[in-house]
Amino acid sequence: LSGLDPAQPYFQSTPIEVRLDKSDAEFVDVIHTDSAPTIPNLGFGMSTAIGHLDFYPNGGKQMPGCGKNPLSQIVDLDGIWEGTRDFVACNHLRSYKYYSDSIIYPDGFLGYSCASYNVFETENCFPCPREGCPNMGHFADKFKGKTQNDFVKLYLNTGEAKDFALWRYKVTVTLSGKRKVKGYVNIALYGSGGNTRQHQIIKGTLQPDNTYTSFIDAEVNIGTVTKVKFLWNNNWLNPTFPKLGATTITVQSGENG
């Protein structure tokens, strides 16, 4: 059974006879996309872990792309009816959109087992363990029987709009140069499976010889890395023309380490 943002009002914290529960099937996977409290947030979905695998994309409460103003959201979609409906229950309805996208991307939507979304954003839950990470959505059942824990909470990020699948990489950069400057560093990854857009990984004071680590949720599974593009900018004209480079750039895939 796959639970697509199971309903919260009148169901959360009720006995298992009345709501979805892991005892309802041999394997129950759940996608939580609207689990903020009903009052005052109008969250329609349940926050409690109730399956064998519980996925909390983007933390499970607020989905990227759902904060747009109503008009832009309605114009973005196929029709006024669908746009209006999606605006009213955007977070709640993301669950079935992620599920349908997961059929197209069998290697996408990897969920990282973690204590919370805040911990997921640190290095503590990266990369996937030896047994791998389960895929949120249609192919979650490939992970059947691989979990020992009572409830497994899994976290991942998604895109703002279709196609929603993202692939997570850790990027570590050691800077080179004569002196520190202010600005930002962008990285683009190139690989056997495709190339990413530029992702900002550092912003603020850039100190030569310092090492900086950041995560990239890439819009493509790049496969084997073939090239990394490094760009930096300080956004203003500096008559001393400071130079900055990278001594090393290390890219680690979340999927296989």
Automatic annotation (TrEMBL):
Molecular function via GO: galactolipase activity; lipoprotein lipase activity
Annotated membrane topology: Peripheral membrane protein
Gene: PNLIP
PLAT domain span: 167-257
Protein name per Swiss-Prot or TrEMBL: Pancreatic lipase-related protein 2
InterPro entries to which the protein is assigned, alphabetical: AB_hydrolase_fold, Lipase, PLAT/LH2_dom, PLAT/LH2_dom_sf, TAG_lipase
Similarity remark: Belongs to the AB hydrolase superfamily. Lipase family.
Subcellular location: Cell projection, Neuron projection; Secreted; Zymogen granule membrane
EC number: 3.1.1.26
SMART domains found in the cross-reference section: LH2
Enzyme class: hydrolase
GO cellular component, one term: extracellular space
GO biological process: lipid catabolic process
Coiled-coil residue spans: none
UniProt pathway: Glycolipid metabolism; Glycerolipid metabolism; triacylglycerol degradation
Catalytic reactions on record: 1-beta-D-galactosyl-2,3-didodecanoyl-sn-glycerol + H2O = 1-beta-D-galactosyl-dodecanoyl-sn-glycerol + dodecanoate + H(+); 1,2-didodecanoyl-3-beta-D-galactosyl-sn-glycerol + H2O = dodecanoyl-3-beta-D-galactosyl-sn-glycerol + dodecanoate + H(+); 1,2,3-trioctanoylglycerol + H2O = dioctanoylglycerol + octanoate + H(+); (9Z-octadecenoyl)-glycerol + H2O = glycerol + (9Z)-octadecenoate + H(+)
Keywords attached to this entry: Cell projection, Cytoplasmic vesicle, Disulfide bond, Hydrolase, Lipid degradation, Lipid metabolism, Secreted
